[in-house]
Structures are given as structure tokens and as C-alpha cells.
Design brief:
The structure is a single chain. It contains eleven helices and nine strands. The chain is an alpha/beta fold. It has two domains: 63 residues; 188 residues, Vaccinia Virus protein VP39 (Rossmann fold, 3-Layer(aba) Sandwich), CATH 3.40.50.150. α1 packs across α2, α6 crosses α7 and α10 packs parallel to α11. The structure holds glutamine. Glutamine (GLN) binds next to α7. Its EC number is 2.1.1.297. It catalyses: L-glutaminyl-[peptide chain release factor] + S-adenosyl-L-methionine = N(5)-methyl-L-glutaminyl-[peptide chain release factor] + S-adenosyl-L-homocysteine + H(+). Pfam families: MTS (PF05175), PrmC_N (PF17827). Methylates the class 1 translation termination release factors RF1/PrfA and RF2/PrfB on the glutamine residue of the universally conserved GGQ motif.
């Protein structure tokens, strides 16, 4: 059987089990130690028994043990970078890549070329902080999380990807006291506590990183309430949030930053996903 035939067969198997067919390529790349293009070049080659066996061992878990493919492989791709992930960190999401992209774009527009102090609160795997530091060397990034286990993963990612992020452990704004930032970003846990969540997510990803109080807004309230002293005169604040929270987010911005422009931006699916606050002279 060729690689291509094998992949088709496994993709069908995934779909028959109501799983993502995209997991097949991710897993095969991982087993072969190849990138997508290199794997594609092998599509006509006969697939080796050893590869088939290794693949099946993990694939069976994916199909029947309700585990995310990213945890089984141990990595997740974010903004083109391979991040180490395990059950102590949230698996980075596509929407968060858009948050990063928007921040980079707004940095160019409003701070272009200047050195800036950046904070990523609730960094988890470190995906936001590390990607920003890699993509924009003028960003000096500090990242925090309450979870020591998550920070261990984030530190490994920082080293693996050759970034220079500084990590701090502690609850919300507490470890950041006395610091000043030009850009402040957070993708805090934001699922309302009693929302029904897919068991693949709820039973595997850290619930600490998923749930944001009764209405999913708990952490934005805590952050916005204490944020002002941590910001420089001109500062950009960026949040990812639930798709149905535009009005609540804008109301909170108005409460704590009444004189500032705030805007909600849609993700590629057309959902209200990010809110930006422009503090000071923009
Ligand atoms: N900042 C990390 C991410 O965006 C973790 C977020 C979280 O744990 N809620 O993936």
C-alpha cells in the first residue's frame, strides 16, 4: 500500500468514527518526522510496516479513547510554529492566531519600529507571547500564568523556538505589579461555567484554562478593574473572548476606560471574537 492509499484509508476511518480526518496528516508527519511537503513527496512510495504499526498504535487511541490528537502527538502548530502541548495547557486555537495577527498589524500601524513592552496574561503554552516575540523583535514580552505546570510548558516552548520571553507565575495582575506595558494582551478562560462543552475538550484540556465564571466574563472584569496602573500613556489592550460577548465587553471597556476608543473585531468565521482598547493618543 502507498502512503497516499494508507492516508485515504485512515481519513475515512476517522470520519466513520466522527473524528477529524485532518488528524491523519498531523499524526503521520509526527511518526515520520516530516513536514507536510516532504510527506507529500512520498505519497507514491510503499508505506513501511514499522510506520504503519507506530501510526496505528496512536491512531487507535485517537479514535477510541477520546484524546485530542495534539496531546497524543505532543505538539500543536500555531502561526507556523510547533508548540509543545500537554494536558496542562490549552491547545492553541485558530481564533487566537487571528488575535496575534491583529496585534502585529496594529503594532506596525501605531508603534511601527519602536521598542515596546508587551504582556500576555494567562499565557498557557506561551503561544501568543512567543509568537509575538518571534514575529516582532521590537517586542519585549513578559508572560504570566497562575499554573506552574503551564509555565513549565511555556518555558520549554520559549527555549525550543528560540524566543526571549520572560515568564512570571501568579494570579491575574498580581505578578505584574509595578510594571508598565505598551501592549497588553490576554486570552483568558472564557467559557461560561455551565455551558455544555464537547467531552473531547472538557475531559482533556485543563478546566482551569477553559472556564471563566458563571457568565464567562469573570477574568475580563478582574483584569480591566486593575489594569490602568500597568499601562503606559499610550497603550493597546487586546482580548480574545466568546463570540456572543461583544456588548458585555464594550460595556466593561466603557466602565473602566470611559475616555478610550474600544472596538470589537470579527474572526474569519464572522464571529465577534476580539476587543481592542486604544488608551491615550492614537
Ligand atoms: N494564552 C493561551 C492561548 O491562547 C492560553 C489561554 C488559556 O489558557 N485560556 O492558547
Amino acid at each position: 500500500m502507498t502512503y497516499l492509499e494508507f492516508m485515504k484509508q485512515k481519513e475515512n476511518e476517522a470520519l466513520e468514527n466522527n473524528k477529524e480526518d485532518s488528524a491523519v496528516v498531523l499524526l503521520l508527519e509526527h511518526i515520520c518526522g516530516l513536514e507536510t511537503n516532504a510527506l507529500f513527496m512520498k505519497r507514491g512510495d510503499k508505506i513501511e510496516d514499522e510506520i504503519v504499526n507506530k501510526f496505528n498504535e496512536i491512531f487507535d487511541k485517537y479514535l477510541h479513547e477520546n484524546q485530542p490528537i495534539q496531546y497524543l502527538i505532543g505538539t500543536s502548530c500555531f502561526y507556523g510554529y510547533d508548540f509543545i502541548v500537554n494536558e496542562n495547557v490549552l491547545i492553541p486555537r485558530f481564533e487566537t492566531e487571528e488575535l496575534v495577527e491583529n496585534i502585529l498589524y496594529k503594532y506596525d500601524e501605531h508603534f511601527g519600529g519602536k521598542k515596546v513592552e508587551v504582556c500576555d496574561l494567562a499565557t498557557g503554552s506561551g503561544c501568543i507571547a512567543i509568537t509575538l516575540a518571534k514575529e516582532e523583535p521590537n517586542m519585549h514580552v513578559v508572560a504570566s500564568d497562575i499554573s506552574k505546570e503551564a509555565l513549565e510548558v511555556a518555558r520549554k516552548n520559549n527555549e525550543k523556538l528560540g524566543a526571549n520571553v520572560k515568564f512570571l507565575q501568579g494570579d491575574m495582575l498580581e505578578p505584574l505589579k509595578g510594571k508598565k506595558f505598551d501592549i497588553f494582551v490576554s486570552n483568558p478562560p472564557y467559557i461560561p461555567e455551565n455551558e455544555v462543552v464537547d467531552s473531547l475538550v472538557k475531559d482533556n484540556e485543563p478546566n482551569l484554562a477553559l472556564f471563566g465564571g458563571e457568565d464567562g466574563m469573570k477574568f475580563y472584569r478582574i483584569i480591566l478593574q486593575g489594569l490602568r496602573p500597568l499601562l503606559n500613556k499610550k497603550a493597546l489592550v487586546a482580548f480574545e473572548h466568546g463570540y456572543d460577548k461583544k456588548d458585555e465587553m464594550l460595556a466593561l471597556c466603557k466602565k473602566y476606560f470611559p475616555e478610550c476608543k474600544a472596538e470589537c473585531i470579527k474572526d474569519l468565521e464572522g464571529k465577534d471574537r476580539m476587543t481592542f482598547i486604544y488608551v491615550g493618543d492614537f
